[in-house]
Write a structure and sequence with these properties.
heterodimer, A: mainly alpha, Helix Hairpins, elongated, B: about 170 residues, Four Helix Bundle (Hemerythrin (Met), subunit A), 2 domains, 6 helices, about 0% strand
Chain lengths: ~100, ~170
């Protein structure tokens, strides 16, 4: 069963990568990042059951990842709101002040 | 190569993976941002079901609470605070989109090739303990107590920072 779980995680990661690269709305980019983090969590938990030496360490690691991802989502949304007040848009390709 | 025995676990895996891939593809292809968040909630719930299949009940419950609950609601708040009725417009740069799609597909091809050609050693039997939550709690407070405390500091700093960032300026 392990290759099936790993393939599933790879599919999720690639969809998240595509979304993060293509989408213009910054909220959707954040969502795609969450999708990629979820794929990594699936890998961790799958190896904690089907790895060579199964243990609970993978589950603990995925709990830490979930916590950091929650902090990242909160900070990301706060930065988005501040940026929206400043610039009036949430499209990531309009935040190009440092390029000019 | 695909010699997979049809068992109950495989059937449940198939259902959950169908939910998750469907939700993820809908997230990519839907127009309204709120609908995208809802389809992501389907992905989170499917992933929680998959954690149950992997005998990680506590992680599954945390997944439902934090992702399907908190993160989805937070994203909906983010949409409400920025732009109501936000709609993804048509992409202005088809070359950029094609390049991103090719890159993601190449990455998936490499990963798939690596997964399918690796021979994984037969795992030792997994002992989740009779109480998954208690085993995780004991591990958290013995072997992993320092990263656990560091994480609590990180969460406090992050949420205070989020409040300060999103607070309205007083002189406006």
């Amino acid at each position: 069963m392990l290759p099936s779980y790993l393939t599933m995680a790879a599919i999720l990661f690639c969809i998240g990568l595509y979304g993060a690269l293509v989408k213009r709305n910054a909220v959707v980019v954040l969502l795609s990042l969450e999708l990629m983090l979820n794929a990594v969590n699936l890998n961790l938990v799958a190896f904690s059951k089907y790895g060579v030496v199964p243990s609970l360490t993978g589950q603990i690691f995925s709990l830490f990842t979930i916590t950091v991802a929650a902090a990242e989502a909160a900070i990301g949304v706060a930065i988005l709101i501040a940026l929206f007040r400043l610039r009036g848009t949430v499209n990531v390709d309009e935040f190009d002040k440092m390029r000019r | 190569m695909f010699n997979i025995a049809i068992t109950g676990e495989f059937a449940a895996f198939f259902v959950f993976s169908a939910i998750m891939i469907g939700g993820a593809v809908l997230m990519i292809s839907l127009d309204k941002v709120v609908h995208m968040v809802i389809s992501m909630a389907a992905v989170f719930l499917g992933l929680a079901g998959m954690f149950v299949l992997l005998e990680a009940e506590f992680v599954a419950f945390v997944q439902v609470l934090i992702y399907a609950g908190a993160v989805s609601i937070l994203m909906i708040f983010g949409i409400m605070m920025t732009k109501h009725q936000a709609v993804e417009r048509e992409p202005a740069k088809p070359l950029h989109e094609t390049l991103a799609a090719v890159g993601a597909l190449c990455l998936f091809g490499v990963l798939f090739f690596a997964i399918r050609t690796t021979t994984f050693p037969e795992p030792q039997p997994f002992q989740p303990g009779e109480d998954n939550t208690m085993a995780i709690g004991e591990l958290l407070y013995t072997g992993y107590v320092i990263p656990f405390e560091l994480l609590s500091v990180l969460l406090t700093v992050a949420f205070i920072g989020a409040i300060v960032l999103a607070k309205k300026e007083a002189d406006e």
